[in-house]
């Protein structure tokens, strides 16, 4: 019963909140004074901001941000490739997930740790941090530690052979939790916390991910300076 909720109900709730929440927030400006007015500009640029912290602790933001973003891109690709491999029994793709996922996971965890450490140790940054800033980092650290613990510490791998078909059953609207019931507890916790993260996503500053990469194509160049110049 509980497993049906966690592996059938929760994925659909998370997907609904993730996609619906982003669209609602994008067009309704529900967090700002434009509430109720349906317009793309209603979201308000300040509410949609990443609340950049680069102004303080400038020497550590580069390493934190680069590791988080490259780690995340590698993890995303590795998961998709691995799940397709798992669903269609293609060992090479599942192996790709193993090694690229492990590399991406280590980069990601390092970046997340550094980002949390910056928030806790740089006084101005600590003062500007909100509950949400910490919640995102802590949730992602939990998800990543569960993922890496299985693959890098316990050396358990190949769970994609169960998770791939399960995701396939969800996508074809014929959900079957039996595919995933037998996987190790740590992998289950990994999936559950990831789904909770996706449900929370639209209500955080992370919404920038759906527009910033698009703006990037035509926004003006930003003049960046070398790290040595910052230290002076
Ligand atoms: C924020 C999102 C997520 C992060 C940061 C994340 C991170 C990770 C990491 C670091 C690993 C270890 C990879 C390796 O060492 O090769 C992993 C493995 C895994 N992840 Fe995720 N993950 C996320 C979302 C998900 C979701 C949504 C699912 C399933 C619906 C999932 C299912 C799995 C499975 C099944 C494995 C083990 C693969 C295997 O044993 O074949 N992950 N994840």
From TrEMBL:
Regarding the membrane, this protein is recorded as: Multi-pass membrane protein
Pfam families from the xrefs? Nitrate_red_gam
Q: Where is the signal peptide?
A: none
Q: Name one GO cellular component term.
A: plasma membrane
Its BP terms in the Gene Ontology are: anaerobic electron transport chain
List the keywords (alphabetical). Answer: Cell membrane, Electron transport, Membrane, Oxidoreductase, Transmembrane, Transmembrane helix, Transport
Q: Does the keyword Nucleotide-binding apply?
A: no
Task: Quote the subcellular location field of this record.
Answer: Cell membrane
Under the heading SUPFAM superfamilies, the entry gives: Respiratory nitrate reductase 1 gamma chain (SSF103501)
- Where is this protein chiefly located? membrane
- For this entry, the protein name equals NarG-like domain-containing protein
Organism this protein belongs to: Aquifex aeolicus
